[in-house]
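Lecture notes, part 5. Sequence design as translation. It can be helpful to think of inverse folding as translation between two languages: the language of shapes and the language of residues. The source text, in structure tokens, appears below.
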């Protein structure tokens, strides 16, 4: 009888230990999911804090939510990861933030026709899933960061009608997926790449936009 009682007590101890371990594992998994979701929300909320929004288009961007998939102008995939940011023509002003580079599943970054100022964060080169980068018709200044050459899924790159300076990074010719490139109506200088995705771009579109124009093929 004593042996049976001891065995039963040992079995109960094993069950309790297993249950506690299982709860800890499940709890840890949930914690990871929440942190992962909040990291994207934090990145987007950093953008909101950096922008002036007179029309309150970002009013639904609530940082207390687990993830930003319920926010207006945000699209997520079935795993609740942010894939689209649609804020074109929204009367926004302010600066882009480096935290945007944390949106690793982002495919479309649409911020055209606003009054975005400052430079293009080099961290945008971390958006490995990006298909479309549309910053045209803003007041973005500084140089086009060579880090954008890491965007190997990029198809549309529209940076026209800004105040960008310097050259078109030669590294961009390595983006084989690139089909549409528009950097006209900026203050760019130097050479225009004529290979890779730039091979079929009509150069007369850029002649009036470049100082010291020189085609790369003539170097």
């Amino acid at each position: 009888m004593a042996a049976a009682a001891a065995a039963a007590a040992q079995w109960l101890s094993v069950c309790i230990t297993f249950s506690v371990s299982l709860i800890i594992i499940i709890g840890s998994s949930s914690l990871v999911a929440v942190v992962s979701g909040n990291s994207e929300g934090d990145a987007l909320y950093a953008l909101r804090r950096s922008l002036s929004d007179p029309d309150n288009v970002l009013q639904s961007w609530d940082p207390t939510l687990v993830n930003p998939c319920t926010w207006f102008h945000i699209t997520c995939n079935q795993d609740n990861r942010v894939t689209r940011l649609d804020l074109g023509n929204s009367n926004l002003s302010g600066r882009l933030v480096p935290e945007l580079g944390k949106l690793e599943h982002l495919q479309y970054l649409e911020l055209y026709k606003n009054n975005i100022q400052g430079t293009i964060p080099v961290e945008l080169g971390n958006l490995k899933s990006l298909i479309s980068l549309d910053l045209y018709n803003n007041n973005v200044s500084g140089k086009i960061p060579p880090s954008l050459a890491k965007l190997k899924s990029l198809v549309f790159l529209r940076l026209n009608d800004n105040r960008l300076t310097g050259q078109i990074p030669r590294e961009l010719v390595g983006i084989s997926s690139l089909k549409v490139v528009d950097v006209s109506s900026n203050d760019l200088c130097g050479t225009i790449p004529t290979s890779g995705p730039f091979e079929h771009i009509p150069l007369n579109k850029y002649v009036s936009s470049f100082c010291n124009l020189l085609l790369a093929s003539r170097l």
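The translated text above is only one of many valid answers, since several sequences can fold into similar shapes. The helical segments are 2-50, 204-207.
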